[in-house]
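Researcher: Good morning. I'm working through a list of sequences from a screen, and I'd like to move beyond sequence-only analysis. For each chain I'm collecting a predicted structure so we can compare shapes side by side. This is the next one on the list. No need for commentary yet; just the structure.
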Amino acid sequence: MKYRGRIVSQLLVVVGSVIWISYLDGWGMPITTYLPILLELVLGWWLGKQYDTAKFYSEKDALTELYNRRFAFKMFEKLIALAHRNEQQLSVLVIDADNLKMINDTQGHQRGDAAIRYVADVIRTCTRSSDVVARMGGDEYVVIAPFTDQKAVEVLISRIVTELKKGESIIGVPVAVSVGYAVYPEDADSLESLMKTADDRMYQHKQNKKQKSTSCL
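Model: Good morning. Structure tokens for this chain:
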């Protein structure tokens, strides 16, 4: 959580106090004179913290601390405008945890939450700071990756899938995902259309894995 609200509130109190004391020429006043300023600092810090907390939860998912759906859509408009202006590509990934329901049913929701957080941590580790990683709800995640073409997306997907295979040794249960992607402007030019294309490919990926698993029985 960022400290912007708390920092701004403290600066305002300090600057206001300095101006007030200078105006009264009160630098030599007894220490008790400054007690109201100390109280203002404490109150300012508390109010700033409330602001920071409210802003954090307006942008972030509480369980994973990834961005939420609303923030992802908001940022996409800025990122796609930047990609359009620079004639660059932008990729959207849709990632779905395959076995979350099974984990919840057999291991309990606490283990299921651990799996959700683990997938979030892996995606966050594998992506760049310039990428927007969001939890869309349940077991679905979205990555908006500016200046990323199809080749880079395939590398990213491979990295995520490889890292997720370590899940059983880290959280005690195996975690698998299905992934689909779409690239702007080749596949679509809006977030909704890009996500639909990516979602369709993700679903196809999931179906292909089920068919392969069935054929091996």
